[in-house]
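Journal club side-thread
Mid-discussion, someone asked how the predicted structure for our own chain would compare to the paper's figures. Pasting it here so we can look after the session.
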Amino acid sequence: MPATKIMIVDNEEGLCRMMSAVLMDDGHAVRTFTSPLEAVDFFRPGTWDLVISDIKMPGMDGLELLQKIKTADPAIPVIMITAFATVEMSIQALRKGAYDMLTKPFEPDELLIRVRNALSHKQLKNENRELRRKLQGKFNFDNIIGGSRILQQLLDKVEKVAVRDTSVLITGESGSGKELIAQAIHYNSPRKEKPFIPINCGAIPESVMESELFGHKKGAFTGADVDKQGLIQAADGGTLFLDEVGNLPLSIQKTLLRFLQEKEFRRIGDTSPTKVDVRLISATNSDLGKDVDRGLFREDLFYRLNVINLHLPPLRQRKPDIILLATHFINEQNEKFKTSITGLSSEALQAATDYSWPGNIRQLKNVIEACMTIETGQQIGLETLSQFIETEAISDQGDDYNNALAQFEIDYLRQLLNSVGGNIEAAAQKANMNMATIYRKLKKYGLRKGDMLD
């Protein structure tokens, strides 16, 4: 690790030499200046880790130097030194951005303690800033894997929705990535510094759901030994994500609706209301409109949740994204387990593209992980992939079997194409196949579309 760089500014040369020797013995790189004007002229943002400056100096006092340094680099800690510390001076220095005050005379150990504290504080702030940057990058729209037109159109809409503090209902099949979209909305919204609290409404038993969501007072019921903060209050200032919101019992729906209308609720056993400011994002893999018609979901709550609707398409409608997602998951596993699988073989890739992926992205991720567990080659092959999904691989059962299978496919293609007048798109829809699969099979058997029509 490179040595931390410390700038010392003090018109007393002897004090500069003493501080420099103490700090260099502690492993720091130090440069001293007896002229504050020269120090300010030499200072460059991002090149120093700490500045130590006297307050009383000719030409420019330390408070003016502090202001210029903090204007150039607001993140850098500055320790001020004075022989005449007063409360007023200390307050003035701290208001201008000083990290600490050190009163002359001081012992070398005291200097080291103050310097170490300042550098630790700076490191902690840098780590927090980096964590926020990574967190925002993780849920940035650009990092939602997929290049298909249908997904990009959705993300364009998501980007507009993120900055507006309104309720959003995300619909889509299980495993299609609804929570990732919700996270992207939150971490690209004005609420990104506040909590994102996800709640799986289908995973909480009805008997404890009200307590989990809204909390309770001590003694509200048997077993309520302490006050409990609910998940809604934990999301105060941030975003509450209700996944599988269609599973909410009607009694909870009523309480939730009242909260959305009044922006406050009462914990179980509490007599006074609790005000909470949250943005609500919901998700479901069911048709809430039909649930409303059947009396399973409140119509008024449905309209409250469904101010903006975002529909996430299933993976089978995002064929171009399959290879991107598979590559992403392979790279994740390589990094995690120090393996070196280079990708899927051409046959495995074709089979993965043709497959319907009923479990969507979650299923694809699990299949990739399973394949990499047992794959012994440099690529995931069709034989390995076919152990986890249905593929069109031909079994090694002799020429008679293979010839019979080939003839069956040729006959089937002929009947299929004749039934739709040779229209490949219509044939694919009728057979629930991918158009690319039909073209691939025609090429496989050396056939032309015209040869198949009677």
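Post-session note: The mean pLDDT is 86.
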